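User: Can you predict the 3D structure of M23 family metallopeptidase? Sequence below.
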Amino acid sequence: MAFGSRPAGTGKHRGSSRLSKKTAGYAGIAAIATTGVVGSLAAPAFAADNHSSTIGQDNGLGAVVVAEDLAGDIADQAESQHRVAEQDAVKAQAEADAKQRAAEAKRMAEAKAKAEREAAERAAREEERKRLNTFVAPVDGSYVSTQYHAGGGMWSSGSHTGIDFHAASGTSVHAVGLGTVVEAGWGGAYGNNVVIKHNDGTYTQYGHMTSLNVSVGEQVTPGQQIGLSGSTGNSSGPHLHFEARTGSQYGSDIDPIAYLRSHGVSL
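Assistant: Sure. Here are the predicted structure tokens for M23 family metallopeptidase:
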């Protein structure tokens, strides 16, 4: 009887072995889903109990279900990761495009601002050039009270070497054009006078002034105040004596009205 009980124990041992083999079969199928090596992993599980049709059939059906489930999960996960990657790529590209557009807009704005600034600077330089090359009347809103070459005993040469502008004492006297002061001070019969050498090589003289605002060597611009009119020197009353010359010395005088008109001054 003791020997008769042994087959029952052996049968129980086989049941446990079958469960282990079945579990191993599932594990093999899981490996199949991740590695794709079907034959090398599935064959041992199926061959472990080839004389038991029940176990073989159970292993085969279980393996298919597990493989399909794992494969589906892996495919879903892969598809989800692919969508996320695509979205990240689209977002990154959009950000890169936005940065490029912003950089291009900034570059264009800077280029436009630079061009406008340079244009404004050129316009200012041109305006200054025109201003410096422009001549003005020596006294604003005045008129010629004594003509050029007028005769009379008041002048040592027997005639007037310049023109007189009507001006009350203390009226502002202006340089007629851009130039450098070559004489500023007492000039004998001219009283307090200023002589300016202009860029074209000509000279202008301003006489009988009551006070001076410039000194020798100073550069003056058109319309700059150089002194105040008066009646100093050989003068019969307040006015401005104005001469135009080809040289710095007395006797090189030319017609002052023609000179001013040739430089665009209306009298």
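The two ends are 155 Å apart (CA to CA). The chain is about 50% helix and 20% strand.
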